[in-house]
Write a structure and sequence with these properties.
Elements: E1 3-5, E2 16-23, E3 26-27, E4 45-49, H1 60-67, E5 72-76, H2 93-106, E6 112-117, H3 119-131, E7 136-142, H4 161-187, H5 198-209, H6 213-225, H7 229-232, E8 239-244, H8 256-262, E9 267-271, H9 278-281, H10 283-295, E10 307-308
Helix pairs in contact: 1-10, 2-3, 4-5, 4-6
């Protein structure tokens, strides 16, 4: 299996990150080997960073779409999730950015399009401020937690601390019940709306339940309390921001809107009526927008108005 070992051994043993490395229609089964013989080295590599509390497998529709078009796709499991190591600590954004750097370095990736979903958007921002955005040519923030989720005196549009406290209490009381309820909000499932099947909810429950309970709790604290407002100014590459205006998990008012204010030159796409999990509920539109952005050669360094679908 493809694993990359980070340099972090603070918790008694090395941390190994599971990496899915796909080129074209063939799946790589070895880590840190660079491009396969069928890869087109002139094309960008797309690195997908998953959201909480899932794993790299959430990207299956996007990886298949881009691999079928000849792109190299890399998707990895964050520490504590999926098939990656589950250490007792290191669930902070400096460490997450260092883990991302290890993936990019070990696979010798260049001309990277970095796609971060939800809490993965924080990794994108911190990677730029901490590692200078090394080897990244474009960035994408999808339903991202950036720039700052928590409501404070200088961030009045944020989410109240009580909301996150209740999440933590519910996770500690009955993590499985919490995950089951959370998934419905994630996709906008209710009595009259069923944008995903029960089978899909079951699959996500399985992915989330396999994560470390410690990582699940600590990552929720990290994405809810980390202030990325200063990090955002370090993102100097062409950037695409995508957010659903019916997102109840990461409300657009405190995230997508604020991110665009801090990155006024970014291409900002608002998906009308879409929930947090739009990588499934609006997968065709998302794939199309990502492809257009990846293929776009020219970048207009000027303020860009939001586009709503």
């Amino acid at each position: 299996m493809p694993y990359i070992q980070t340099k972090d051994s603070r918790f008694g043993e090395p941390v190994n990150l599971f990496v899915q490395d796909v080129t074209g229609s063939s799946y790589s089964s070895s880590s840190a080997t660079g491009l396969s013989s069928s890869a087109d080295t002139t094309q960008p590599t797309i690195v997908f960073i998953h959201g909480w509390p899932l794993s790299h497998e959430m990207w299956e529709n996007q990886v298949a779409y881009f691999a079928d078009r000849g792109y190299r796709c890399v998707a990895y499991d964050r520490r504590g999730f999926g098939k990656s190591s589950k250490p007792w600590g290191g669930y902070d954004y400096d460490t997450f950015a260092d883990d991302l750097k290890a993936v990019i370095d070990e696979l010798n990736l260049n001309n990277v399009v970095l796609v971060g979903f939800s809490m993965g958007g924080g990794e994108v921002a911190r990677y730029f401020s901490r590692h200078g955005g090394a080897n990244v040519s474009k960035a994408v923030l999808v339903s991202a937690v950036t720039p700052f989720m928590l409501q404070t005196d200088d961030n009045p549009d944020g989410v109240p601390q009580d909301t996150f406290d209740s999440m933590a209490e519910d996770m500690q009381k009955d993590r499985y019940a919490f995950l089951e309820t959370f998934a419905k909000q994630f996709y906008g499932v209710n009595l009259v709306s069923h944008p995903v099947s029960q089978a899909h909810l079951n699959h996500d429950f399985m992915l989330a339940s396999l994560a470390s309970p410690k990582a699940t709790l600590e990552c929720a604290k990290a994405f809810s309390s980390t202030d990325f407002r200063d990090d955002m100014s370090s993102i100097t590459v062409p950037t695409l921001i995508i957010h659903g205006d019916a997102d109840k998990t990461v409300p657009i008012e405190s995230s997508g809107e604020k991110s665009h204010e801090l990155l006024p030159n970014a291409d900002y796409r608002i998906y009308d009526g879409e929930p947090h999990g739009l990588f499934v509920t609006a997968k065709d539109q998302l794939n199309e927008d990502l492809l257009n952005f990846v293929q776009e050669a020219a970048y207009q360094n000027q303020s860009s108005a939001a586009v709503t679908y």
